[in-house]
Write a structure and sequence with these properties.
heterotrimer, B: mainly alpha, 2 domains, two-stranded antiparallel ribbon, 19 helices, 65% helix, 2% strand, C: 267 residues, four-stranded antiparallel sheet, binds adenosine-5'-triphosphate, binds magnesium ion
Chain lengths: 330, 500, 267
């Protein structure tokens, strides 16, 4: 009866036991932190422009390639020409700044001309941008999986470096340095974002613009600049996620923008699109669901399970976990 | 065939416009519609103008008949070879049919359906499972075609109801994910049923039966072509008639302003789901035909790339325009066939490319600006070529362009060997240059245009020509962005489209 | 123009609605009888449009009842409310701009017609008959405005209409839903004095010849005075006065709401 999925799953749960469950939970949380970072970009842009920015996943993909580019420029992970901590910091810096610029460029050239266009126009433009970026990346990289080999960073002569050392172990399940880096960086960046949005003048302008763009611009807010900054910040987060993806999962590939972006997007919807805490929560939730689906049902089912969760949420709670229903003013 | 806003069957022709309260000679107080009446009536001169006028004033049924007559004659003169009829004729028709279904969803009902290809794929797999040796079912087409439509409709109904409360925005993400889940399901998941992977995995399901109606097999390309032509005409007529009924008016009203439509007694969500299902049924039908025609169902034929091509067709033809779908499908499929890697029209590709550039330049006004740009581009090319040859050596300039065209070697820099990331820098440089040109104004733009055009030629010869498949997709992506920026209603569309 | 009391057509009971902390409609009671023109006046932001949004189901009231001929409308989706017999125009003009004038008026007959998509595609005789009837009904509604929306204008897109004609088309479109009660949100806004006079007469005709009941929001006191059987004044969502135009216009509370205590209403 091995073809019956349900029995498969039950077998797997028995076979993996508690340790297995914890491993999956750990994987899910780390993966989910990455989803959260990307989901924030989707949610911020949606909040301010009511635009589903399909191209955001591809900004993340470009981020992974930028991190890879820096790595290669300094000899690659197997034979780096500078110590590994500054190298990783440099990868973050370049990828975050570079992705930010790409995001601003996309907004400036693909979306800004459409500010007053019918609603469907920027959506189709976004589709075009996503498609352009993805296929450009395919063209420029010859569809190669560019390996980070992050495990070797800091190691001698291509041996394992400190990134895979366990920081602590729970029930024999190790939590490694790179996992801690991913989760802590994600938390730190989200905290910074929350500070920006709720404690600075720019954040106030962002919230005002997202509430009512016209009124905000009449109050003297340069809404174009605010929108640019929103894209910049969202893309910076995606760039950081890109480097961490490379270091943790291992490679840069032109198609991950679509796949990973789609799941992050789902995270934003499940969390309640437009809500920052919702995006964070949704990201972790989707990460955990995916990890468990992979562990118990097999990797070939993970996307289908996540899709099922999306449908379920739309049926049961269409506004997402933390979203609030919008009232249209007539 | 005509735009959505046309109403046929108006009993009397509209009487001559007369401005009600205007004094003679005064234009104040006249609607722009009346003021522009002369302009609308004035027709362009020459045969082109005559043709345009004839097209405008012909009734819709005549237009469809004209299309059928021309399409039916094609196998006897323009597309005589089997291969040409297959690639240019049959596939164009399939794209027309797919575009029509998508037009209902996107153009009439205003829904952003990104899962359309999945319904197309479902139709194909339904046909493959029921009419092939895979499971040993050899059902006839009169049974499998309706089943394929049904198989596409059921998931569409479920998705539509799931996203019903927030049809606008969420439908896009739900359907996009559905398309991806479909690809993963067919390609990777491929669960076992009756001892076999149900979708055949990455290889798909091969060796499908030919379309067989009541024992009569359609095997030759010509038979398939005429069958598909008939199907497409029926689909077009059905959509046209639906559009001219209360349902079509309700679709367009919901597209224009869903809230006002709802207050005007139209159950907007129900109608949107109806449009979504209707489109999916058309996709399922075309999927089954496509599977039979290509004798296989393989999931890569239903990926996001195909979706973008379909959107390009609908947008090129104009939102809401049924006739536009025909034009869009012909333009896109023919140019795509030329760009396809396996077809061998490289010199044609090149002519198309340079012809297009010169056409665009030639349309610039005033004429001397066009002349400056053209001369500048040519001169700039020779200059760069000379400088590179002198400074970097001949290895950088003596590469051969793909497939002949020796005259280019003195103008375009083509390195003989692969020089590291030369290609990539060129490409990224071009993207930046185009952005620069787009943000410059006046003469600065003219000046920047010459090097940019030369860079375009460099990228074309060095990068794009070598991977035509990806190039075509990149160009479609760019086309969507540019079209939305300059004509959001689509190239040939007339109506403005509001609100998703 | 006081009419003898007739059967109540529309009844609002203790209706309340707030946005966030802001009470926009506060414990409102209102009765509209058949074949009556009732005007709602009040300063900007008084909650007049919100009242229409509540009746037509765009917003759901926090508390209270809305009854049409005794049946509750609360919780019904807008299209069902319209099918029950409530039609409205929009203050901000929400025409189907890319559709032709006559199609606008044909589209809003969706609720009173039946042909399904299959019969539409087959062009059955029943479908053709219904289509003819839809067109005839639309032409009838458009002809209500005399020459304004006639003839060649039928086939022009709605976006090409002037502002005043758009207001007229909004009314025609609402009439085509075949309602019992028409809610008109500032029908005279943006019209010149001649047109305002014309629309005033027209609203009177709608009641007298068309047999409609009308609930009207209007800032132009000439219009309100000209046709109202009864006037309601709203301020901050509360009904501050009700009665004939003279009574309401001279009510000190109304004067205060509009102009502050010292001034008096001038027409
Ligand atoms: N969707 C909404 N969200 C928040 N506040 C709203 C909403 N709709 C209306 N309001 C507020 O409710 C109050 C009443 O608005 P409403 O549009 O009903 O006023 P009105 O009487 O029609 O005014 P006017 O004469 O200017 O048309 C206003 O303060 C308005 O800002
Ligand atoms: Mg109002």
């Amino acid at each position: 009866m091995h073809h019956l999925l349900l029995f498969n799953i039950i077998d797997q749960i028995r076979a993996l036991g508690w340790g297995g469950a914890f491993t999956l939970l750990r994987n899910g949380i780390v993966l989910g932190s990455l989803y959260s970072l990307i989901a924030l970009g989707y949610t911020m842009v949606y909040g301010i422009l009511k635009l589903l920015n399909f191209a955001h996943g591809d900004v993340f993909m470009i981020g992974t390639f930028m991190g890879y580019g820096v790595l290669i420029a300094f000899g690659g992970a197997l034979a780096p020409t500078i110590p590994f901590i500054p190298l990783i910091l440099l990868m973050f810096a370049v990828s975050m700044a570079g992705s930010g610029v790409v995001g601003v460029g996309i907004e400036r050239f693909a979306y800004r001309p459409l500010r007053n266009a019918p609603r469907i126009a920027p959506l189709i433009s976004a589709l075009g941008v996503a498609f352009f970026l993805e296929n450009s990346a395919q063209l420029l990289t010859n569809s190669a999986h560019e390996l980070y080999n992050g495990y070797a960073l800091g190691g001698k002569n291509g041996n394992f470096g400190p990134l895979l050392n366990p920081v602590f172990t729970i029930d024999q399940v190790p939590v490694t340095v790179i996992m801690v880096i991913v989760v802590l960086t994600a938390i730190a960046l989200m905290a910074a974002l929350v500070l920006i949005v709720y404690r600075t003048k720019l954040g106030k302008a962002m919230r005002a613009t997202s509430f009512d763009r016209e009124a905000a611009s009449m109050m003297g807010i340069d809404t174009d600049r605010v929108i640019s900054m929103t894209f910049f910040i969202g893309s910076v987060l995606a760039g950081a996620a890109g480097v961490m993806y490379g270091l943790y999962i291992g490679d840069a590939y032109f198609f991950i923008g679509f796949l990973f972006g789609l799941k992050a997007f789902t995270a934003a919807v499940v969390g309640g699109i437009g809500s920052l805490p919702g995006a964070m929560l949704g990201g972790v939730l989707i990460g955990v669901v995916e990890a468990f689906a992979t562990g118990y049902a097999g990797g070939q089912w993970s996307e289908i399970v996540v899709f099922g969760i999306l449908i379920l949420f739309l049926l049961v709670r269409p506004t997402g976990l933390l979203g609030s229903p919008a009232i249209q003013k007539v | 065939m005509s735009d959505a806003s046309d109403t046929p069957g108006v009993p009397e022709p509209p009487p001559e416009p007369e401005a009600p309260e205007a004094e003679p000679g005064s234009r104040i107080g006249i609607d722009s519609w009346v003021a522009e009446a002369d302009q609308r009536r004035a027709r362009g001169r020459g045969p082109l103008g005559l043709a345009a006028w004839g097209w405008e004033s012909a009734p819709d049924s005549t237009k469809l008949l004209a299309f059928v007559a021309i399409a039916a004659s094609l196998p006897f003169w323009l597309l005589k070879s089997e291969g040409d009829l297959f690639n240019f004729g049959l596939f164009t028709l399939i794209f027309v049919g797919l575009g029509l279904g998508l037009q209902v969803v996107v153009g009439l009902a205003g829904l952003l359906d990104l899962g359309y290809v999945a319904f197309y794929g479902i139709g194909a797999y339904a046909y493959a499972l029921l009419s092939s040796g895979y499971y040993g079912h050899h059902w006839p087409a009169e049974a499998t075609l309706p089943i394929a439509m049904g198989a596409a409709v059921i998931p569409a109904a479920i998705l539509g109801f799931a996203a019903r409360r927030l049809l606008g925005d969420y439908l896009a993400i739900v359907t996009l994910f559905f398309a991806q889940a479909f690809l993963v399901f067919t390609n990777v998941t491929n669960p076992t049923l009756f001892g076999k992977g149900i979708t055949g995995g990455a290889n798909g399901i091969p060796n499908l039966d030919p379309l067989t109606f009541f024992g009569y097999k359609l095997t030759s390309t010509k038979q398939l072509y005429f069958f598909t032509l008939g199907t497409v005409v029926v689909v077009a007529a059905a959509i046209y008639l639906a559009n001219q009924s209360r349902i079509g008016r309700a679709w367009r009203a919901s597209r224009e302003d869903p809230l006002a439509a709802e207050v005007m007694s139209i159950p907007v969500n129900r109608l949107k789901i109806l449009a979504f299902i209707f489109g999916s049924a058309v996709a399922g039908l075309l999927g089954a035909i496509y599977a039979a025609v290509s004798t296989a169902a393989v999931s890569t034929n239903f990926n996001i790339g195909v979706l973008i091509i379909l959107y390009a067709i609908v947008i090129l033809g104009g939102f809401g325009s049924i006739a536009g779908v025909f034009v869009g499908a012909i333009v896109i499929n023919v140019s795509f066939e030329f760009l396809e890697p396996q077809t061998d029209y490289p010199s044609f590709k090149r002519w198309l490319f340079y012809g297009l550039i010169i056409f665009v330049i030639a349309r610039l006004k005033p004429w001397y600006r066009a002349a400056v740009i053209l001369a500048g581009t040519v001169g700039f090319g020779f200059a760069v070529h000379a400088v590179v040859a002198a400074m970097a050596g001949h290895a950088w300039t003596t590469g051969k362009p793909i497939s002949g065209a020796g005259w280019l070697t003195h103008w375009v820099v083509i390195p003989r060997l692969n020089h590291g990331n030369f290609d990539n820098f060129l490409y990224i440089g071009l993207v930046l240059a185009v952005m620069l040109v787009a943000s410059l104004k006046g003469w600065w733009r003219t000046i920047a245009l010459a090097p940019t055009l030369y860079l375009t030629a460099l990228v074309w010869e060095n990068v794009l020509v070598t991977s035509p498949g990806v190039t075509a997709l990149i160009l479609f992506g760019v086309m969507l962005i540019v079209l939305m920026a300059i004509r959001p209603q689509g190239l040939l569309g007339t109506s403005r489209v509001e609100i998703v | 123009m006081a009419e003898p009391a007739r059967k109540a057509l529309l009844e609002l009971k203790d209706l309340s609605m707030s946005f966030g902390g802001l009470k926009v409609i506060d414990g409102l009671d209102l009765t509209v009888n058949g074949r009556e023109v009732v005007s709602v006046i009040g300063p900007n932001g008084a909650g007049k449009t919100t009242l229409f949004n509540l009746i037509t189901g765009i917003y759901r009231p926090d508390a209270g009842e809305i009854l049409l001929e005794g049946g509750s409308l609360v919780g019904l989706p807008p299209y069902k409310i319209t099918q029950r017999g409530v039609a409205r125009t929009f203050q901000t003009l929400r025409l189907f701009l890319n559709m032709s004038v006559i199609e606008n008026v044909m589209a809003s007959q969706y609720g009173r017609t039946k042909v399904d998509i299959v019969r539409a595609m087959l062009r059955t005789p029943g479908m053709r008959r219904e289509e003819r009837e839809i067109r005839r009904f639309a032409e009838e509604k458009l002809s209500f405005f005399g020459q304004r929306l006639m003839g060649y204008r039928w086939n022009q897109p709605a976006y090409s209409l002037s502002y005043a004609n758009r207001r007229r088309l909004e009314i025609a479109r609402a009439m085509a839903t075949d309602p019992k009660i028409l809610l008109l949100d500032e029908p005279a806004a943006g019209m010149n004095p001649v047109e305002t006079h014309e629309i005033t007469e027209l609203i009177g005709q709608l009641r007298d010849e068309g047999g409609f009941t009308i609930l009207l929001i209007e800032h132009d006191m000439h219009v309100v005075e000209g046709i109202s059987d009864r006037v309601i004044a709203l301020d901050h969502g509360v009904k501050i006065s009700e009665g004939s135009f003279e009574q309401v216009a001279t009510d000190p509370r109304v004067v205060e709401a509009y102009l502050g205590t010292k001034a008096t209403v001038t027409k």
